[in-house]
Amino acid sequence: MKKYEVAPNIWEIPITEKKGMRVPARILATRELIDTMDEGVYNQVTNVACLPGIQRYSLCMPDGHWGYGFPIGGVAAFDLKEGVISPGGIGFDINCGMRLIRTNLVLEQVQPVLEKLIDTLFYLIPAGVGCKGFIKLDKKGFAKVVQEGVPWAIREGYGWKDDVDFIEQGGNLPGANPDKVSEKALSRGMEQLGTLGSGNHYLEVQVVKEENVYDWDTARTYGIDQPNQIVVMIHCGSRGFGHQVATDYLRVFERAMPKYGITVIDRELGCAPFDSPEGKDYYQAMLCAANAAFVNRQVITHRIREGFERIFKKSAQELGMQIVYDVTHNIAKIEEYEIDGKKKKLLVHRKGSTRSFGPGEPEICPAYREVGQPVIVGGSMETGSYLLAGTRKAHEETFGSTLHGAGRTMSRTAARKKVQGRQLQEDMRRRGILVKTVSYSGLAEEAGFAYKDISTVVEAVHQIGISRKVAQLKPIGNIKG
Fold it and tell me: Rounded CA gap, 463 and 471, in Å?
């Protein structure tokens, strides 16, 4: 498929390359990354460009790889009247996202008790397929959770009052309506709060070394204020609840599309007009799953604080365990952007892509408004992760979006054939990274070689200017499902 470099590290596939394209497709990547991107990405990003009401471009970030419907790393914005909403552009794990928690501790204090700390966190935070949390709710109680989001958790004692200031939209997306969620979805979700699940989800204890801080002024604003500082990262989402919501509405949309005269190149792009009854119902159900995911990460945060208190015999407040930020990377949200010289509200789909709002944006909490929103980018458990800052250029070029992680280069099956989980665990221990896992086969799936180089993909967005590097975070302890 023909592509042209229209600006440094921005590659465009014109509408002439595929019948039905309404807008060009753009892939953000260095020459090194674009040369290794699989054909599935090109096919999917151009399929998205064919959807009704799409605005400006169909986009894919440098961590992009083949996904369900949209490529993972895909971004697309749609007109609210003429455009559609598509579960394939959001993901089955609705509001899968990242949370970063700072501490006042440094490596020298944590290293002697690291194994005990990881064992304690592994005990407190359930992980693995089908795991259940310690909070027991009935369907009515869970319906209240998905309507209220993190404010519910704070009221119930699972966090601090100011936690909401450091969560995207306060961890409460208005408009969530549990009446639009199936009984089956509610049943799957009501016992899973405070759990990691499986796949590429993890809890990681990390260190910020002095040589890995690129901008100390911004880092200090975010609470990273000393060399060898310890932070904790969470990567998880809405678990079985979000998966069921997506599954339910894909079936609804498959039946609804003929009614609206919509045909799609790929059935995985099942959709409905956003302004239709079906589209509105899914949006309200999706918001429920997004709120549940915020609460899930909030309850996990509460348990992490408890775990650190047990080990260090100090309160979480004394340990300085504030949330740096919590940001989603599987969501559709109504946001305002300039189209053809006029401000316009759009439905922005981010699927494996993170919001990257720059300085001055009113949606950013006051503490960070001068420097831009924190962007949390998860890498593999072997290579580490990054803390970035959002930019104005992202607002102008990519609907306020950037990458979300390293991006897979190898299937889970292929990874399992290359390494045994127990061997990988021992190899990582020798390199100073302790890992506790529920499943050794699951551990093998997440080996570092199965992912793109995190530093390369981060450098791409840094060079393009849609987010900028603040610090790299190196793993020392990891919990996986």
Answer: 15
Measured in whole angstroms, the distance separating CA 159 from the mean position of its chain's CA atoms is 21
Question: Catalytic site residues?
Answer: 404
Is residue 214 within 8 A of residue 470, CB to CB? The reply is yes
Pick the CATH number of 4-409+451-480 from 3.40.50.150, 3.40.50.300, 2.40.30.200, 3.90.1860.10: 3.90.1860.10
pLDDT: which is higher, 219 or 409? 219
* 402 within 8 A of 475, measured Cβ to Cβ: no
For position 32, what pLDDT does the model report? Answer: 93
Domain boundaries, the chain: 4-409+451-480
Distances (CA, A) of 342 to 295, 336, 477: 36, 10, 48
Q: What pLDDT was estimated at residue 377?
A: 97
Give residue-wise pLDDT tens across range 458-470: 999 999 999 999 9
- Half-sphere exposure for 421 (CA within 13 Å, toward CB): 17
What is the Cα–Cα distance from 356 to 353, expressed in whole angstroms? 9
Stretch 200-224: mean pLDDT, rounded? 97
The dihedral region occupied by 147, where left means phi > 0, alpha psi between -120 and 50, and beta the remainder, is: alpha
pLDDT tens digits, 71-111: 999 999 999 999 999 999 999 999 999 999 999 999 999 99
Instruction: Report which residue type is found at 450.
Output: A
Between helix 277-312 and helix 239-256 the angle, nearest 10°, is 170
Mean pLDDT over 294-305 rounds to 98
Whether the Cβ atoms of residue 285 and residue 135 lie closer than 8 Å to each other:
no
Which is it for the CA torsion 56, 330, 68, 62, positive or negative? positive
- The tens digit of pLDDT for each residue in 448-458 reads 899 999 999 99
Q: For residue 472, what are its two tokens? A: 């790299």
How far apart (Å, rounded) are the C-alpha atoms in residues 249 and 219?
A: 41
* The 3-state secondary structure of 6-63, one letter per residue: EECCEEEECHHHCCCCCCCEEEECCHHHHCCCCHHHHHHHHHHCCCCCEEEEEEEEEE
Q: Is the distance from CB of 245 to CB of 94 less than 8 angstroms? A: yes
pTM higher than 0.70 for the full model? Answer: yes
255/295 Cα distance (integer angstroms): 32
Structure tokens at 419: 């390494």
